[in-house]
Amino acid sequence: MLNIDKDTFTLRQTMQRSDFECYHYLDPVPPAVDFHEHEFYEVFFFLSGDVSYIIEGRTYQLRPGDILLTDNRDIHKPDIRPGKAYERFVIWIDPDFLKRAGTLGSDLTLCFTDASAKKYKRIRPESSVFTHLRAICEKMLRSRDDQEFGSGTLSYIYLIEFLVYLNRAYFATPDAIRKDVTENEKINEVVAHINDNLAEDLTLDRLAEACFISKSHLAHQFKTYTGLTLYQFIIKKRVTVARNMIREGTPVMEACMKCGFNDYSNFLKAFKREFGRSPKEFSKRT
Known about the structure:
By secondary structure, this protein is α+β, with helices and mostly antiparallel strands. It has helices at 6-12, 95-101, 110-118, 127-145, 151-171, 185-196, 204-210, 215-226, 230-247, 252-258, 264-275, 279-285; strands spanning 2-3, 20-27, 31-32, 41-48, 50-55, 58-61, 67-70, 76-81, 86-93, 122-123, 181-182.
């Protein structure tokens, strides 16, 4: 299995453009990818491989053509098994760009926000829709690499077209269909409680009491379904939400306190460990 060093992985997970990026990846040897999160919305368009994908405690077994939607709060990780080439399109979109694009007439974030609200992140489009979306991705990639006049403008047009049909595909999927997902209702409840109460005391004792589950069962089952220990998940979630707050203009110390870090030095260490820069450096960059 190919291991990606931290710097290379960080580069591959960081937007180099201001608004969006589109990539086509084909890995004959499956890379080892750790749990991560993004500053942006991600569309993960699966083409081939033997892959399951963990998002916030739910594991999706993927079929070619499946599309996953993640926002800038989701902790996620692919589990890529050897034997088949791992191929996918990945589109990263800046949240501010999507807000601006909404002035064209439609809120193109709806599929992301609705998927987050319903805690179900997959689209499984019909074959004709899959073919159409793939063709748009290929046009986006060609225009990205093309040097002819207007190619950059066309790439934006193709992205908007893709997002329109992505939303249509999402809302055409019946709410009742939840296929190929491994999940646990009690762990889902714990994850939801953490997401809704980041500023609170999220000890094992408090979570077990709040969610009516034994401490030993919670500790074991949480790692089984999320892939992370309870402590690892809470710290990742806290620094992720703090990063988003800082990105939107919240003062660093305020973000620190609102995300449950009562000690700035601990917040600083966790933030630098996760993102490779201090909160203040990140604030200046954004």
